[in-house]
Design brief:
14 helices, mainly alpha, about 300 residues
Length: about 300
């Protein structure tokens, strides 16, 4: 049986610039599967507070009318790349689906780059506070390389190179762009309701209160939510820290856990085809700056 820090030793023997996919996969699926899932949920949630992003999501209706499907499809597409890699048939299909969905809308490169930054920075900050250990510098380099590669496949320009650059880009963008939008608030409310629906009915208000207790003040102000009280925040954050201490004492995972195995994924009980995930908007609508026919150094087809 592996000891708690044995896998970290395995990670530290790898090269974060060359073996970034393997490091990211080990960290996400063995070391922190539950935490990274929560952190990536929060990462996507942060993007709603950028009015251009939140408003677009409200207009499409994907998160207000079909939130479970949108959640499932997003998680499964990202999960496919993680599990199979960028150069696999499955990974290329997943990236192609992501690009073709984004291409149907006018999304600025700056907004796309910001969303990418949330995937790098939010997990690190979550684990700093609620993880059973913090990410090593080795892992942070691998995280940056992984999402730099994803950004290249998505045709995003001026992607940061280091974790520190991802963090500075995220912080400056939020400071400049976070703000109120009624459509974004409707998307936020629908997301909170979705999270509550994963638990027995009487627990839904508790889940909503706990979710709001995890939001920082900048997010609360952007959505115009009342600031949770000290008791709600203390209980929620204290419970997560207690969980981290318990996990630290447990034996490490012996098998990987991917997002497709999570109970929150509810829309495909009989399985799914990667090529059928996501939305299929009307062709011919202008979209993201992702050109057709690019190689893996640019955007996927």
């Amino acid at each position: 049986m592996l000891k708690r820090y044995e896998r970290l030793k395995e990670i530290l023997r790898l090269d974060p610039d060359r073996d970034f996919l393997e490091i990211y996969r080990l960290t996400v699926t063995y070391e922190f599967p539950w935490d990274i899932t929560r952190a990536l949920e929060l990462a996507l949630y942060r993007t709603y507070a950028v009015p251009a992003v939140g408003r677009l999501l409200a207009v499409t209706g994907e998160l207000t009318e079909r939130p479970q499907k949108r959640y499932d499809d997003t998680a499964l597409l990202l999960d496919t790349v993680l599990e199979h890699g960028f150069d696999s048939e499955e990974g290329r299909t997943a990236v192609r689906r992501i690009n073709r969905m984004h291409r149907s809308y006018d999304i600025s490169n700056d907004d796309m780059r910001y969303v990418l930054c949330t995937f790098v920075v939010t997990p690190k900050r979550w684990l700093d506070t609620y993880g059973w250990r913090r990410l090593s510098g080795h892992e942070l380099r691998a995280f940056a390389a992984y999402y730099r590669t994803l950004g290249a496949h998505m045709g995003i320009k001026d992607v940061p190179r280091t974790y520190e650059e991802f963090e500075r880009t995220l912080d400056s963008y939020e400071e400049e762009h976070f703000g109120w939008d009624a459509g974004a608030r409707s998307v936020s409310d629908a997301t909170l309701a979705l999270m509550g629906s994963w638990y027995p009915g009487p627990l839904a208000p508790v889940v909503r209160a706990a979710s709001l207790a995890l939001l920082d003040d900048t997010l609360l102000r952007a959505f115009r939510y009342p600031r949770p009280g000290r008791v709600a925040r203390g209980l929620t954050r204290g419970a997560l820290r207690l969980r981290a201490r318990a996990v630290r004492l447990m034996p490490p995972r012996s098998t990987p856990r991917y997002a497709r195995q999570n109970p929150e994924i509810k829309g495909y009980p009989d399985g799914y085809e990667v090529a059928a995930l996501g939305t299929f908007p009307t062709p011919g609508v202008r979209g993201c700056p992702v050109a057709r026919g690019r190689t893996s150094e640019g955007a996927a087809e």
